[in-house]
Amino acid sequence: MTDHIIGGVSRRSVLKGSTALAAGVALGGAGSLADLTRAWAADSPFQPEKGAKLRMLRWNRFVETEDIQFDKNMAAFTEATGIQVRLDKEFLDDIQPKAAVAANVGAGPDIIWGPMAIPHLIPDKLLDVTDVADYLGGKYGGWYESPAAYGIRDGRWMALPLCVSGNYINYRISAVQKAGFEKFPTTTADLMKLTKALKANGSPAGMALGRATGDGNAWCHWVVWAHGGKLVDKDGNVTINSPETAASLEYVKELYENWIPGTASWNDSNNNKAFLSGDVSYTNNGISIYAAAVRQKMDIAADIDHAFYPIGPVGKPTELQLPFMIEAFKYSKYPNACKLLMAFLMEGPQYDAWLEQSVGYFTQTLKDFEKNKVWTEDPKRAVFKEACTRTLDMGYAGSLGYAAAGALADFVIVDMVSQAATGQTSVKEAMETAQKRAERYYRV
After folding, report:
1. CB hemisphere CA count around 374 (13 angstroms)
2. How far apart (Å, rounded) are the C-alpha atoms in residues 92 and 59?
3. pLDDT tens column, 131-163
């Protein structure tokens, strides 16, 4: 764990920013942003409690420049408001269990920024932030529908979608072209042809089949949905044991036979390492692989591009993109300070600067920010701009709620896909096990 005290002292502040100011903030650090924040906070509807101090837990970075800008924004907040913020950073897969512990014991971080399932797992433990969501949505063109849904329960906002981490295909251009494809395939049938050709050429592919919170959930849901499989139907009936799911698992078995060995144990970092070391020629991930190659001036950067997930037999996109939610606990002694910080992180100058420095790893959840130059300065980022508009949600085809969040957090789909792909069980047994596990969450 990494602990930071993000500090400085001052009075309060808020933001009236321009794009030019945002660019200055990105380049110049906390100074100008602190001045803007001081003016903003004085007029903010979210006035902090006297002597407020906050502790925030976030997931550890995958893109260095994003993390640096986030720390700059946090430092500016403290300098302008006088509110000390202890910022703890943990590996992504550890955030969800830590949130559960904090909720159960009623103590720990005031604010958590982490995976999408958290709010629906502990909704009654979270601070109502409807006023913050309405304020930001009204100011910045409204929220995209899918990420917003992760923050709403029973008509109230219990969390804010700070961003979506787009998860798409990362591939080596030269390897794909050598295998006979000018661009990455757009259908699952052609993906299979490519995968076999890549293996034959000695440049196999691979995607995480371990309990990877981001990458494993993203591609495993995509492949099941692409063939028409669903964990539940629109009425919430568990329907994963189906011919459509069986077709998806047979497809994955064939993919797996042509992948690099070892993917069954991969987490959210193994595929990055395998790709950058040249061991695999395609995987699914955010843009962090490409960002690292560019930052480190690696030769491989010029040979990397990105693609949407291929379309399966259902004939339409079936992506599961990854909102990252920020929420505050009811037990916090400083609820107004929590709201002030949450609003601050999504105000124009600092959010624009942070989005730019995430270099495409994060996609905006408020519509006005799609104008950010991050989406036009490098065409290899283009697919990630669409993450909020192409995605289904984790509860598909049913509704969001505890059951959907629990099944996702328990890796019901990922485990089923992995068991069938590796031959640990038969396709039939994998589906039957998933059916029983899902029914425990959906209370059948």
Report:
1. 28
2. 5
3. 999 999 999 999 999 999 999 999 999 999 999
Sequence-distant (≥ 6) Cβ neighbours of residue 199 within 8 angstroms: 205, 258, 259
Beta strands in 294-414 (DSSP E): 304-307, 319-320, 322-328, 391-392
Of the candidates 201, 193, 212, the one whose C-alpha atom is nearest the C-alpha of residue 254 is 193
Residue 401's contacts (CB-CB under 8 Å, 6 or more residues apart) are 120, 153, 395
Residue 86 CA, distance from chain mean position:
23
- Side-chain half-sphere of 276: how many Cα atoms within 13 Å? 18
Helix boundaries (H) for 6-161 = 19-28, 30-43, 64-81, 92-105, 118-121, 130-139, 145-149
What does the pLDDT read at residue 444? Answer: 55
| String of DSSP letters for 261-278 | TTGGG--TTHHHHHHHTT
CA-nearest of 357, 285, 364 to 323 is 364
Rg of the chain in Å (alpha carbons): 22
Environment class of 65 (CB within 10 Å of its CB; exposed 0-12, middle 13-18, buried 19+):
middle
Whether 13 has a pLDDT exceeding 70, the answer reads no
The answer, yes or no, to whether residue 41 has pLDDT greater than 80, is: yes
Six token digits for residue 113:
């920024």
Collapsing DSSP to helix, strand or coil, 252 comes out as helix
Q: Between 13 and 114, whose confidence is greater? A: 114
Decide: residue 407, CB within 10 A, 0-12 exposed, 13-18 middle, 19+ buried: buried
Task: With a cut of 50, say whether residue 351 has pLDDT above it.
Answer: yes
